[in-house]
Amino acid sequence: AQTVTQSQPEMSVQEAETVTLSCTYDTSESDYYLFWYKQPPSRQMILVIRQEAYKQQNATENRFSVNFQKAAKSFSLKISDSQLGDAAMYFCAYLYNQGGKLIFGQGTELSVKP
Amino acid sequence: DTAVSQTPKYLVTQMGNDKSIKCEQNLGHDTMYWYKQDSKKFLKIMFSYNNKELIINETVPNRFSPKSPDKAHLNLHINSLELGDSAVYFCASSQDSTNTEAFFGQGTRLTVV
């Protein structure tokens, strides 16, 4: 069965600095999608970035980028130039193609210090 | 216009009651989902519907019954509420069951007292 693990329950970063959130996953599939979602205090789930496993190039969205290591089954999120608005819970997720369900990690609570 | 909307946003009710949470999406998507986020913020899928048909039913007590009157709506009815049902329930939708982007509603915080 597919599993997703986020080993950092909490992280902290100084404003304008860079932080990396870790995620590992387990699957026997060769083609799949991985995501990072952000959940601010408003509770809304916001898609931050998506990576397709068949693409070797790491996805990038403005200040957000991933380090996707397929062989190691690792999918970390790097946030550059951290802003106060980045403070939130971040979830790593794997898309299970049978029925489209997302399998989430436990989440990492990110705080940003001014 | 809200893409995926849930009502109510907050629900406080007593043990043993029956309650419903409604979800509507205006994105024209074929697939809708219910996820549960527990007190430790862990998110897990409960159900998935594709074109009004149930395609995923995780190990959820049968007190929980989803209903999809049409592909734009997926409601969640809960019978005989228990304290352990307290959680945030999220509705989501995607273009289809293989689509790679799910859009989430704002969640319904259910508190059972």
Please characterize this protein's 3D structure.
The complex is a heterodimer of chains A (114) and B (113). Helix content of chain A is 0%, strand content 54%. In chain A, a hairpin with a 4-residue loop joins strand 8 (64-69) and strand 9 (74-79). Chain A contains no helices and twelve strands. With 113 residues, chain B is mainly beta. Chain B contains no helices and eleven strands. Chain B has strands at residues 4-7, 10-13, 19-25, 31-37, 43-50, 53-57, 64-70, 73-78, 87-94, 103-104, 108-112. Chain B is globular, with a radius of gyration of 13 Å. The chains are: A mainly beta (114), B mainly beta (113). Chains A and B meet through strand 6, strand 10 and strand 11 of A and strand 4, strand 5 and strand 9 of B.
Q: Are there runs of chain B of 5+ residues with pLDDT below 50, and where?
A: none
Total number of strands of chain A = 12
Task: Please give the share of residues in helix of chain B.
Answer: under 10%
| Low-pLDDT segments, ≥5 res of chain A | none
User: Structural class of the secondary elements of chain B?
Assistant: mainly beta
What is the radius of gyration of chain A computed over CA atoms, rounded to a whole number of angstroms? Answer: 14 Å
What coarse outline of chain B follows from CA principal-axis ratios?
globular
